[in-house]
Structures are given as C-alpha cells and as structure tokens.
Amino acid sequence: MLKITSSEAVARRPAGESTLPALLCFSHLRWDFVYQRPQHLMSRFAQHRRVFYVEEPRFGDWDMGCDVTPREGGVRVVTPRLRRGLSESARVEALRAMIDNLVRVEDVTRFVAWYYTPMALPWTRHLDAHFIVYDCMDELSLFRGAPAEMVEREHELIAMVDVVFTGGASLHEAKRTRSPHVHCFPSSVEADHFRQARTQQRDPIDQANVPHPRLGFAGVIDERMDLDLVDGIAAARPEWQLVMLGPVVKIDPAQLPRRANIHYLGAKPYAELPAYMAGWDVALMPFALNEATKYISPTKTPEYLAAGLPVVSTAIRDVVNPYGAAALARIGHTAQDFIGAIEDALAQPADLRRQWLKRIDGFLSTMSWDRTHEGMAALIEPPDAVGRGAPEAVAISAKRAASTITRLDVALEA
Fold first, then answer.
1. What is the model's pTM?
2. What's the distance, CA 24 to chain centroid?
3. How far apart are CA 17 and CA 380, in angstroms?
4. Best exposed site among 6, 50, 134, 243 by fewest CB in 10 Å?
C-alpha cells in the first residue's frame, strides 16, 4: 500500500525532532506547484520534527498506494495514487487506509495535524492528533470550482481545531468570530532572497530579448487576474513589455490577451525569480476585484518590494492597507490609473528611489517567514512539551506568541 521513494542521503530523523511530535500537513496544493506559504512554513518546521506534506491524490490506471518522497530541507511529500473512476465512498476509504498505513509504517505515534483544506476531513477526522491546526491561507469556498460542501466542512474543522491561523488581515476579520483561537499571520517574505534582484543578474534566456521598459508579474494566472486590465495596459502602451511568469490554471489559455508586448514565460522555480525580477522596471498586481480575491493577502507584495521594484496593484484590501496606506505601493482601479502610476514609477528620480528603498527595508525588517514560523510554533509547542491543555504551558505559549504577533501587527500598521 505504501511505497517509500527515499534517498539514502536524506536523514530520516532531523536533529532535535525526537522531542517534538511529527507534523502531518493536509494540503490542496502540490508541493511542486508554486513555492508559497505552505512550503515556507513546512520546510522550517521540518528542521526540528518530521513533517509529512500530504498532497491531493493523483488519479490514473495504476495500483493504488502512495509515494513518500523526501525533499531538500527534510519535508516528506506524500502523494496518494488512486484509480480513476472511484466512487466518493471508495475514494475516502482508500485515502483513510493510506493515511493509517503511513502513520503505522513511519511509526508516527504523536503528531500535529495541520490542515490547509477542510476537504481532507472525511479521511482524516478519525485520527488521534495531539494538536490540530487550521492554517487558512485563502477563502477556498469562493474560488472557482470549489466543492459545494466546502463551507460545511470548514465549519466542522474550525469547531474541532485547537488554533486557527489566517493568511491576512481580511481573513482574520472574517474568521475571528468563529473561534476564540484565531490568530493573524500575514504573508511574509524571505527578503534576502529577493533582495538579490537589486544587484546585476544575468538575464534569463527567455527574457533577455524582451525590450525595456518591462512590467512584470509572478504568480498563478487564474480567475483572480483581471485580463481586461492586462490587455488594456498592453494596448495603450505597445512600447511597454508585460512579462507574465506563472502557471495558467482554471481558465482557458485561449482567454488570455495576446499581443506582441505580452510575454507568457510560464512557471519558474522560486530560486530563479530574483534573476527575472532584476530585469523588470515595475511589478504589477492586476488582480480582479471579485469573490475570489475578496480575502487574499498576496505574498508577492513584500517579495516585489524586497526586490526593489515599484509596485502597482488593484485595490486588494490587504494591499491597500498597509502597503498603499504607507505609500509603499501604488493603487489603481482602471487601465488608465495603472498607466499613470507606472509612468510615475518609471520617472522616479534616483534620490527619491534611494529614500524609498530605505523605507522599504525598514518596513520589511519587521517581517520574515522565520518570525512567522516562530510565532506559530509558540502556539503549538507547549502542548507538545508538557501535554495538551496544561494551564502553565498555555500561559507561557500565549506570552511568547504575543510578542511575535505584536511585532507582526506593528509591521501591518507601519
């Protein structure tokens, strides 16, 4: 049932993890899709405990089972394999058996259950988790193609978890009345990684022949993007080049605007993003204002800023505040607004740009994925150490976490 495809070079138990429960993460996102919040956090948790990242299953004409593949950083990626055509009940039964087998084979006796999707509940609710986390990074029920039962499952999940983390202020506002244990941990950044874009980089081959000025976007291209806005900018300024990095999902590629100055370069590895951004003049966030973007807190906002790029975005709530309010990003509503903001960014004098970069660095100094991980760990480690619900441990945890969360709040209000 369980196939382990591990490398002998990968240590099975990272140093220090034996004192902490394992972490079983159930996610709707594939590990190799786009490097974002789950990858940043799970790779950090894996430094001190075993982490199993359970992806959505793959379907095909094969023997059912699951592959456990160690990745750099110590995370074990678990990929269930199911036969296509299974009924819903058969699918749930097979997944439940696989996760039980995983726990048995890997000798997982105590663990934290970490959910990114409520849709994993039917085949995991029976597990005897030591501590349960719901890291709500998006309002998945509002995304295109969301299952009808998503809302009901989320209600059940929130009722059973020990703590809820939200990926932004808007989500926190929406969820905080549902549980007394909801904490806001906004999107963060590996500033040093993206700061590489501020120094000379070799232009990637597929971008090297694109003229300047270049307006760049890096992220998933889906129903959350305002394609008419992208087309309007490109049509009005044919001398500007729009560089679009990222996979196209949930929309027909034929719907994408096609012009000589729009360049779709596909998905790129996280490690290569600074090299692309180094060749951009302005970064774009042309999100549609719809149900799917109502609660998003784009990780790319601090990433663009760390790269030293002027940012022009639509009026996404978690971008308007704090980034727009602090004059760290320009906000536009129409193609003409974007064009004016881009022209302003391109014309920014060098001395003003240096001052702006100092403000950016000061702002980003209060943010990091390390700090986010530290704050989250503070809320789950005391039960790990002395047993679930011990009052003295919870009090210590709250005090430790509060200092971290306060620093994050200061960053939001700066």
1. 0.86
2. 17
3. 14
4. 6
